[in-house]
Design a protein that fits this description.
Elements: H1 2-88, H2 100-135
Length: about 140
């Protein structure tokens, strides 16, 4: 009977060890699950942030493309006006300027000259009208 009791005590001791081991491993697994949950939360946040910045980058690229297109249109319109000015002034197309800023300067000078000529014509028309009015009296 002592032997049975000794065996039972060994079995109980082994059961106790197994129970303690199982509890320790379950606690360890719970810790890993908590760590995994924290990492998953960080990962989800990083993915969300990456999607946000990807969206921002796409917006920036689209804006840049739009602005580049707009700049191209402005340069083409400026060049067309420049060609009209050069043609009107009977300027040589061989002396064309490729710099948009210089083209705009030449267009500005042309418009200012045209405004001066228009003002002079208006003044001489007014003067001629007032002379005709005083002559007829």
């Amino acid at each position: 009977m002592d032997r049975d009791q000794l065996n039972q005590e060994k079995i109980d001791a082994e059961k106790s060890k197994l129970s303690k081991y199982t509890e320790d491993k379950n606690t360890e697994i719970l810790g890993y699950n908590n760590q995994l949950s924290g990492l998953q939360t960080k990962f989800d946040k990083a993915q969300s942030e990456a999607a946000h910045w990807e969206s921002q980058w796409t917006h920036i690229k689209n804006t840049a493309a739009s602005k580049t297109l707009e700049l191209g249109k402005i340069k083409m319109a400026t060049h067309n006006l420049y060609l009209l000015v050069m043609n009107r002034q009977r300027g040589s197309l061989a002396e064309q300027v490729d710099d948009t800023s210089e083209q705009l300067d030449k267009i500005q000078v042309f418009i200012q000259d045209l405004n001066k000529i228009t003002e002079e014509i208006k003044r001489s028309d007014i003067a001629a009208t007032s002379m005709a009015a005083t002559s007829s009296h």
